[in-house]
Amino acid sequence: LEAELAAFKDPKLARGLVDSIQKLAPAGGATLMEVCGTHTMAIARNGIRNLMPEGTRLASGPGCPVCVTSNRDIDTVIALARTDNVTIATFGDMTRVPGSTSSLLKEQAAGRSVQIVYSPLDALRLAEQHPDREIVFVGVGFETTTPLVAMAIKRAAAAGLKNFSVFGAHKNMPGALEAIINDPQLKLDALILPGHVSTIIGAEPYKFLAEKYGIPGVITGFEPVDVLQGIAMIMRQLHEGRAEIEIAYARGVMPQGNPVAMAAIDEVFETCTALWRGLGEIPGSGYRIREEFAQFDAVRRFNPQVEPTQDPKGCRCGDVLRGIMAPSECPLFRRICTPENPVGPCMVSSEGSCAAYYRYY
Ligand code: SF4
Asked: Probe ligand 1: pick from 313, 316, 350, max atoms within 8 Å of CB?
């Protein structure tokens, strides 16, 4: 397996793909958006932006789940952290994201109970170990994490666990992509589609991009050769005047996705309008907990009093997430906003565009 994976880092293969990209790229240039935060990091880490032909722009998109979580949602989590007897269980990145006036890290310093966990099942265990506390898991992410949260809720229901609930800010990608494509400030030619999310949802939900908008898309993985192969396949489509959704990540993605994971999502969640940082409200792009599982919905359970929301002053995360501005164009980038002192979530998250630019450019 190691040898197989090494092939996806092979410099010779990479060189050949870069040559194909150079040959096939449209003479007038093209803007490709990498949708997924892990792709943003892979592109930055491997210097792929610098290997693109003149006129080809790689714009980063809205695929970092922490980054697209709205300030209103961050403030709601902070309000939950301030609720009596509540312990917030969350991924590490979320603790550092600034809300309107605080962050989970600041709340922890002020004596609130905040625990870092690595999966929703860790949060479930926490609830079993501390029956006297209310454990609220912060659920952000796309279809890669949503099935696990669905499973945790089902397990809690089956075990009759009364002190476990979820703050759900889960989202799905296709609705956000449609909003991006219709953004008059951005002219996109093609999309590098996310590998992890597509493992769950497959290729079908992206078909409208090609069929309705004539935008080609390629689902690809995260090693340098994966990313370059995805870009080469896009360039071939543009060269041949085709618009299709193709899979360059066959070792991870089946066209039909993972029906078991999708069924788990569907059993516990229903789609709803979601508020995205930078993109605003998008109908059908979020998941909320179904009525049958309402007792596991932290907002319905605790009805937290959320302070008036204000976005971080001067932060341009919204424009960065829409792909209309590079992080280095933000006036605060590197001067005031750094990973040690982040002003917005795009500098906090390990998948954030601003963090990627800070580290690698
Ligand atoms: Fe926001 Fe900082 Fe990124 Fe600027 S550099 S957009 S302030 S996160």
From this structure: 316
Ligand 1 in reach of 354 Cβ (< 6 A):
yes
Residue 353 CA: which ligand 1 atom is closest?
A: 3
pLDDT at position 290 over 70: yes
- Ligand 1 centre and the CA of 39: distance in Å? 19
For the stretch 217-246, pLDDT in tens is: 999 999 999 999 999 999 999 999 999 999
Separation between Cα atoms, residue 240 and residue 261, nearest integer Å: 36
Of 227, 223, 224, 225, the C-alpha closest to 193 is: 227
Spatial CA neighbour of 62 closest among 339, 278, 208: 278
CB atoms under 10 Å from CB of 273, counted, come to: 12
pLDDT, position 1? 64
| Rounded-to-integer distance, Cα 94 and Cα 101, Å | 15
Torsion sign, CA atoms 177, 197, 276, 40: negative
Domain segments of the chain as ranges: 1-314, 317-360
| Cβ neighbours around 325 below 10 Å, total | 19
HSE at residue 11, side-chain half, CA atoms within 13 A, is: 1
What's domain 1-314's architecture? 3-Layer(aba) Sandwich (3.40)
